[in-house]
Write a structure and sequence with these properties.
This protein has a seven-stranded mixed sheet, with helices on both faces. Strand 1, helix 1 and strand 2 form a beta-alpha-beta unit. The chain is α/β, with parallel strands linked by helices and 266 residues long. 38% of the residues lie in helices and 19% in strands. It contains ten helices and nine strands. The C terminus is likely disordered. The protein starts with a strand and ends in a 10-residue tail after the last helix.
């Protein structure tokens, strides 16, 4: 079972189409899936858009009357997946966003990596449609800013398109006292990747195109304040994941697998 975890806030224009594209992408597969959506205090028509899909898809919607924030919504979704599974060694949670930046067409490849033995799959993005140079540079250098989170082989440490085997996620949740995600936004993605990587036997990466030009709203990223926040958080977090399965390869070979994030929008 794949539990597709989608945090949403004011994504009425894209979330419905995303759900149908998920269905289309996974239709050829025999893998069962459930879609879990948190509608985090939306003030647009997100709730109305989601309602008919609950009758047509294996979809559960949790609605917050007030906004709880990205990290709390993500943690709620992940805990929901862990609570629902009866096969944590086989099942996985996949986190993706409702703004259409994360393409459902990559789900079959992510599922294949999980089936082949990966406990954590992190997508590594080539950005497309981001006109702001500062935002592109921030994404490229976020790993350096978040220097306290170290996961060998993962260059896009802020990726919000991530899959985790539920046994590894369950162990990571138990290992953390208090909130699982103590940061928000991009830093929460890095924290999630780092904490699950600590419990994962194998970490895989998948190259994807992140389509920022498909959003139907203005970006919520303000590069310079976010850069300062990532630097501050990076000095506080201390998370080191296990080396990936290919860590015994030479440094030159590993370096070849870690090119910088490309800038498709200039």
């Amino acid at each position: 079972m794949l539990y597709l975890c989608i945090p949403s806030h004011n994504e009425a224009e894209t979330v419905g189409l995303l759900l149908w594209k998920i269905r289309k992408s996974l239709q050829p597969s025999t893998r069962e899936y459930e879609i879990l959506v948190v509608d985090d205090g939306s003030t647009d028509a997100t709730a109305e858009v989601l309602e008919p899909y609950t009758k047509a898809l294996p979809l559960t919607v949790v609605r917050h009357g007030e906004r709880h924030g990205y990290a709390r919504s993500v943690e709620e979704l992940l805990r929901m997946a862990v609570e629902r599974t009866d096969r944590p060694k086989r099942d996985a949670a996949v986190l993706l966003h409702a703004d259409f930046a994360h393409g459902p067409e990559y789900l079959p490849e992510i599922a294949r990596r999980l089936e082949s033995g990966a406990d954590l799959v992190v997508t590594q993005a080539t950005l497309q449609g981001e006109p702001r140079r500062a935002a592109r540079l921030l994404r490229r250098h976020a790993k350096w800013l978040l220097r306290g989170v170290k996961v060998s082989g993962v260059r896009d440490i802020c990726s919000g398109y991530v899959a985790a085997r539920l046994m590894s996620l369950k162990t990571a949740l138990r290992a953390q006292e208090g909130p699982f995600l103590t940061c928000d936004g991009w830093a929460a993605n890095a924290e999630l990747i780092g904490r699950v990587a600590q419990q994962a036997r194998r970490v895989d990466t998948v190259d994807v195109i992140e389509r920022l030009d498909l959003r139907h709203r203005a970006s919520r990223v303000d590069p310079w304040p976010l850069a300062k926040e990532l630097w501050r958080v990076g000095g506080q977090l201390r998370i080191a994941g296990r080396p990936p399965a290919d860590s015994r390869r030479g440094p030159a070979a590993r370096a070849a697998d870690e090119p910088e994030l490309e800038e498709a929008s200039k």
